[in-house]
Amino acid sequence: AAIIAMITWLKLHPFLALAIGAVGVGIAAGLGATDSVAAFVEGFGATMGSVGILIGFGAMFGKLLADSGGADRVVDTLVGRSGPRTLPWMMALVGAVIGLPMFFEIGLVLLMPVIILVARRSGLSLMRIAIPTLAGLSAMHGLVPPHPGPLVAVSALNANLGLTLALGVVVAIPTVIVAGPLFSKLAARWVDVPVPELYVTTEDLEGAEAAAERQRPGFAATLAAILLPVVLMLGKAIADVIAPDSEAAAKNLLDFLGTPVVALGLAVLAGMALLGRGGGMDRKAIASSLESSLPPIAGILLIVGAGGGFKQVLIDTGIADVIAEA
After folding, report:
1. What is the pLDDT of residues 277-318, one digit of tens each?
2. Terminal CA-to-CA distance of the chain, rounded, Å?
3. pTM score, two decimals?
4. What's CA 168's distance to the chain center, in Å?
5. Within a 13 Å sphere around the CA of 50, how many CA atoms are in the beta-carbon half?
6. Residues 6+ apart with CB under 8 A from 118
7. 45-49, 168-172, 207-211, 216-220: which has the minimum mean pLDDT?
8. Residue from 313, 305, 317, 311 nearest 44 by CA
9. Cβ-based neighbour number of residue 53 at 10 Å
């Protein structure tokens, strides 16, 4: 409650609120001031080691996907193959595909102009287009690694990341269908929002035309880059289920390639080749894209790490066991 009050009422940054709250809980529970700080630091480091690297790789890949024009290619290809009746379903698929490697806020900024333009061109209600797209983004961000929430849960429960990814996708599909295309019918009735007339300016249209004309990676190459880490991690999970004790070279190779850090690292390298080069980016442009991807997630990393520190304090004080037993 104190942490929530510090964030919402005092307007403290969540990282600072979590740090103060964690140490405060440790002291109040009798752990001692020094040991409370030590537990927080231990939990912070453990979480950053298991989650922070993956978030960093995910952010780098997402930025490369956007800057190369690969995201635009996916959107244009999928939307171009659908009619008015299937368009909400296609937009849900677009949101899910883009949301697989991208953080929600990045995907939102990327897809908002697309949502407006598609609604204008199709003549459908803004809610019929926007709600399915955002449902796809939301479900992937909340249920599927490498997003922060699922990764922290995987780390806390020592779960199999590949299996979590597979089950996350399975759960995400009906979630997106219900919260997206189906709910959008009701949302369009309840909230009749006209498509903004002034949202798309002359400069926006000129920029869209220039983006369409410039070199972009192919659809197959973009999809391959997006799905590479998914396939690698799922391959490892399947191998662990089929032959958990095997010492075969193929199993060892799958174990290595399917390790989340390796899989996402390979995705970034593949993205540099398939997306960067495919999008006509030179080495300087690729380096600039990767570099600019990291500053925006600094706050996310600190908050996630502080959450891990708070978790460790709860464990060391015994509060976690009390909650679990209750």
Report:
1. 888 899 999 999 999 988 988 898 999 999 999 999 999 999
2. 19
3. 0.72
4. 12
5. 21
6. 79, 87, 91, 129
7. 207-211
8. 305
9. 16
